[in-house]
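Input (Shikimate dehydrogenase (NADP(+))):
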Amino acid sequence: MAEISGHTGLVELLGSPVEHSLSPAIHNCSFGELGIDAVYLVAEATPETVGDAIAGARALGLWGLNVTMPCKNAVIEHLDGLSPAAEIMGAVNTIAVEDGKLIGHNTDGAGLLRSVAEAGFDVVGKKMTVIGAGGAGSAVFTQAAVDGVGQISVFNARDEFFDATEERIRDLASRTGADVKLYDLGDTQVLAREIGESLVVVDATRVGMAPLEDQSNVQGEWLHAGQAVVDTVYHPLETKLLKIAAEAGATAIDGLGMLLWQAAIAEEIWFGRTMPVDVVRSRVFS
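Output:
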């Protein structure tokens, strides 16, 4: 991070809780490497107070913002516009100042797809399976549809949100022309088939994170060499899913890739600069 002066800009993360966020370490390291005269801080905000936080950001002339849970949806009504992907997702994690207006973006799904591309996989026109249709999963399959992934199979527990998710996926397919279908996660026969046919498999659930470290939504015999298998969990770094993926000969991609690349894409939006991802990865996570 550059020395703070009267010219130093402020970028801030809004959400709750945010005190344990890795974003300040990631962005301040990157700002320092790139010579960007800015500092990245965090601030507590809830859906009830995020409007006041955005008004404060306008008044103080912040250079950009990130938004995390539980404010990704609630912040939208306080912005001046949305990117196409953020509009479809109905969720924002990055806010840019564009011609004096605050424009909401969502870099979560793009970050995961960038981590897959970094591993050497081109998903355009190919098949992908996404497990979990919550915030992370929705961002992934929405961005995949926008980016031209050929077929997207989404699996989610048949809970009280299943019907609403199915409607949202139909709307996504209509708006993007993508082949997106929702399945019941409890139907393991269909899950095994779709995973076996997919170039990329993404688990966007909490399975693999404490207290579910010894569990996986995927069985090793469903996987094979030539696939990319991604777990959005990054603590622990090697989940059970990634262990069995490696044993099956697939390329295992941990959740740090999504975390780093969504941050890198945010910096591209704010400053038009390319984050030195390898340097940040080595300094922040080694």
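Residues 22 and 120 are 26 Å apart (CA to CA).
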